[in-house]
Specification:
heterodimer; A: nine-stranded mixed sheet; B: 80 residues; alpha+beta; Mth169, Chain: A; 3 strands; 28% strand
Amino acid sequence: MRFAVVQFPASNCDQDAIHAARILGHDADYVWHKDTSLNGADVVIIPGGFSYGDYLRTGAIARFSPVMQAVSEFAKNGGIVIGICNGFQILCEAGLLPGALIRNRSLQFRCEHVFLKTANYETPFTCRIPKNKILRIPIAHGEGCYYADPETIQKLKQQNRILFQYCDKDGNLTEQANPNGSLMNIAGICNETWNVAGMMPHPERACEKILGSEDGALIFHSIIYSLTEKQKKTGEKIQAGHK
Amino acid sequence: MKAKIIITPKKAVLDPQGKTVQGALEQMGYKGIRAVHVGKYIEIELDGNDRETARKQLDEACHRFLSNPVIEDYKLEIED
C-alpha cells in the first residue's frame, strides 16, 4: 500500500506518520501543500502540527490550500483519508467531517497517553482492533475539545460514526478520563461514507514497542486490511491523482 | 473603506477562555460581571467605495473562512 502524508507549513507529525507507515511495511511519501496531485496514493494521512501557525483557527487556512482540493476529490471518490490531531481539525474545517475542535476545557495543552474505547469495530479504521480492547495512545493538543450541535451529535450516535471515546483503563467513559472536554468523550469520528476519519490521539506515535505502545498500529492494520479486502472484491483501486 | 468584523463564540459553545478571564476579573475584585466571552476582532482595509458589493463579498468571506459557523457568530460593519 502507498501512503501519502500531506505537509503543510508547520506540520510536525508528518515524519512520524511516514515512519509509522514504513515500519509497518508500506510505501509512504510526502505531498506538499501546494501540490495538486496525490501521486497515486491508496491512503492519505493529514498529519498533526500547527498548520499555518494555527492562525485564525486551527485548520482554517490549511483547508484552502491546493492539496486539499485533491484530498476532497479523493475522499469523494471513496479514498481513505485519516486526519490526526491538526489533521482532524483541518478535515472538520474543510467540511469533510462534521463539528469542530475547540480549546481544551482546562485551557491546558495536554501531552500524555490516554485510554480509548472503540465505539464501532465495523469500519475501515477499526476492523482489526480486537473486541473490547482498550487502546493506549498518546495525545498532544491544546484544542481537541470536540463540539457539534445536538442534532449532529445525535446523528453521529445513531449512525455509529463515533470511532473512539476517551475512557479510563477499564473502559469507563468518565469525565476524569476526558482530557479536553469533548462532548460524549469523543476522540475520533468517521464520515457518512466510512472513508474519512479524524482523531485527536496519535496512532502513528504508538506503532513500536520502544515507544511504549503498539496499539496505534491496529488502526493502520485496519486501514490496510479493509483496503486489501476491497481491492480483492472489486479488483480496482481508487485512484488518487496521477502516478 | 474599512470593514470591522467581530467574531464571538456561539452561546451554546463552551468558552473556557471567557470563563477563565471572568474568574480572574472576579478575583481582582471587579463586581457584577455576569459573563465574559472572548472572541476576535478583524479589521480589513478596502479599496473603492461600493459598500454593498463590499458587504456581500465580506459576508461570504466571514461565512466561509473568517468565522466557523459551527462554533462562532460574527458581526460585520463597514465604514468610510
